[in-house]
Specification:
By secondary structure, the protein is mainly alpha-helical. The chain has 14 helices and no strands. The chain has helices at residues 2-56, 63-90, 95-120, 124-149, 152-174, 188-223, 225-264, 266-302, 310-339, 342-365, 370-390, 401-422, 428-449, 454-458. The protein is globular.
Amino acid sequence: MPAAFLASALIQFVLGLVVAWLLGPAEFGYYALALAGAVLVQTFVFEWLRLAATRFHHVEAGRAFAAVLLRWFAGIAAALLVLALAVAVFGGERRLLYVLALLTAIATGFADLRAAMLRAEFRGSAYALFLALRNGLALLLLPMASALTGQAEAALGAFFLSILLASSVLEWRLRGQQDAVPPMPAPVSAASDLARYSMPIVGTNLVYLGLFFLIRAAIAWAGGIGASGQASLALDVTLKLFTTAGTAFDLLFFQLAVRDERERGAAAGRMRVRENFERLLVLVMPMAVGLAFVVARIEPFVVAPAFRGAFSAFVLAAVPGIAAYALIQYGLHPLYQLRQDTGRLMAAATGGGLAGCAALGIALLTGAPLVFVMAGTILAAMAGAAAVLSRGLGAGFMPGGPFWLRLAAALAAMSLCLWALSRLGDGPVVLVAMLVAGTASYALAAWIADLGRIRALLRGER
């Protein structure tokens, strides 16, 4: 399943670049805003169902509960369809884009719920089939729609259609493979337990997604929809790089902490999360430093001419804050999830959201450059969230001085290598040399310093 997830993430990453190239900054700005809005709606109304499937559904005893989740989904989807009909009538000039955003939220909500059920049932082949269908259709439909029309509506419609068709084929394949589930009422106790567990997580995700949406909207207001398109592409690329790496890391290591807590007690689970945080630093920090060195050189090969210059500037602005976001999401959050103290996550997101909004308001009122609007907003939000979370970490969680010195030495070795190679000029040969040599120099330095117990990892120990 992690391999299928990583392959899917890579395809979505490439698709974003292709669609931006074909649509241009202005139409991609509309597309990115509409898709971000769809994700917000999906998270707000459907994410708790996915969390329910992940936490409570299983193949032996969860089929009746799955039927309840699907009925809840159908009721919410019906309400959104009524809203979409109203938007189609009264939505204004680009009403089709708004309608498609709502339909995309419904389709993605169902797809994520169904995928969570498949993972909970450990049906890896069905999950891989769904991802292959979804990504294959997207690879075919999105570039075609974008190239033929150059319109955000067509691109978002193709995105929606790829999810709808993939889900339909999967349901057809799965039909008849499970026993019939008799109707049953939703268990009230399970619903209340679910709300206590999931709502803080949903709220946390909404705050961060809302902040990223607000940044796009603010840049559109201050600099125009074309500037928002340029900023959105850079933000999307940076987010996908760090969140894909973080999610893959979480899939590999978080369950080890759960196992340690179950088998050896809470202290062992906490120690495992602490070790995971060190390993995450070892992964995220070189990504941030390396990206800062090479983004301007990669830019001519991956983005359309209309995005160049602005793309690398916005990526450099986003990297520090997004790297901090990844450390918070995949390094600090697991400790509170292990404790089932998810309320702290909501408090941290709220504090971070307020700090980010304050920074955004100040930047807009003072007429700060758009790259500073992005950089300041994300950094302020992450600093606020980290301040709240740090109060509950406990003594000894953060790495000590020796670890930071060894990490700094490894990053310095990589930076020196990248700087030296950058003096050789531009071009693909130098770029490839920088990517290979930078990775190799950091890996060697990390192995010598045994950062994150990398030697044990290479021996197959976790």
